[in-house]
């Protein structure tokens, strides 16, 4: 019997392929992504990860299984503490301090994605929260591995590439997949259907986030 994760990835493979083909990711792999686009991305990603960590913390609070509590609480910590170190390295390169980052408004794509995650965290049962959070882990690992296989050693975005292609991140993704599959296996069919809906929406928002960064989209009015 297929697992939830295998089924979800198969259903949404076209979305992943479209994300991989985005100019942002193609040019990042080639080392020629414009600094303005990456700066926009890294600032918005820092804002996104705060909300992502909050959503995972809510998931930990809703969990009954001690292992699941540890899984979601640990993932929340990683999102806020570990990845922040990567952001701060790039902020230093761009001459940004915490106040400058805080002063920049969320882009429409970031606002949409964080709003979706937090609404899901507070309104939906734990399996649906897990499914909504999973693409952020999984897509980044797959994109990181793909880019790592072709990127030159002197790629200016090597720190970003190495983070998401690394063994530590891969292990975190595997743990999140396993937890999500366990929750789906114990869920009723309507909940599993809601999980698939949340997974697909998150995949769409991953695409939107990178596309928005490349085009440096802001609020139209």
Q: What's a quick, concise take on this entry?
A:
The protein is mainly alpha-helical. The protein is built from eleven helices and no strands. It has one domain (4-28, 39-215): Heme Oxygenase, Chain A (Up-down Bundle), CATH 1.20.910.10.
Structure in words:
By secondary structure, this protein is an all-alpha fold. It has a single domain, classed as Heme Oxygenase, Chain A. Helix content is 81%, strand content 0%. The protein contains eleven helices and no strands. The mean pLDDT is 94.
Task: Provide the descriptors you would attach to this structure in a database record.
221 residues; Heme Oxygenase, Chain A
* CATH architecture assignment name: Up-down Bundle
Question: What's the CATH H-level superfamily name?
Answer: Heme oxygenase-like
Strand content: under 5%
Rg, Cα atoms, Å: 17 Å
Report the uncertain regions. Answer: none
The biggest beta sheet, please?
none
| Portion in helices | over 70%
GO cellular component, one term: cytosol
Organism: Lichenibacterium ramalinae
Protein name: Thiaminase II
Pfam family, one: TENA_THI-4
């Amino acid at each position: 019997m297929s697992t939830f994760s295998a089924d979800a990835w198969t259903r949404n493979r076209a979305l992943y392929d479209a994300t991989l083909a985005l100019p942002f990711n193609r040019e990042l792999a080639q080392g020629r992504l414009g600094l303005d686009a990456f700066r926009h991305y890294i600032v918005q990603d820092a804002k996104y990860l705060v909300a992502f960590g909050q959503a995972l913390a809510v998931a930990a609070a809703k969990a009954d299984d001690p292992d699941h509590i540890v899984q979601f609480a640990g993932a929340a910590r990683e999102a806020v503490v570990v990845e922040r170190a990567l952001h701060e390295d790039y902020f230093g390169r761009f001459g940004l301090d915490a106040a400058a980052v805080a002063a920049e408004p969320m882009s429409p794509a970031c606002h949409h994605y964080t709003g979706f995650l937090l609404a899901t965290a507070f309104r939906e049962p734990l399996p649906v929260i897990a499914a909504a959070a999973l693409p952020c882990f999984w897509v980044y690992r797959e994109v990181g591995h793909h880019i790592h296989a072709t990127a030159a050693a002197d790629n200016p975005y090597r720190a970003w590439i190495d983070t998401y292609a690394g063994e530590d991140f891969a292990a975190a993704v595997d743990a999140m997949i396993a937890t999500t599959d366990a929750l789906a296996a114990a869920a009723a069919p309507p909940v599993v259907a809601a999980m698939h809906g949340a997974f697909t929406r998150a995949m769409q928002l991953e695409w939107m986030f990178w596309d928005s960064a490349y085009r440096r989209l802001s609020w139209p009015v």
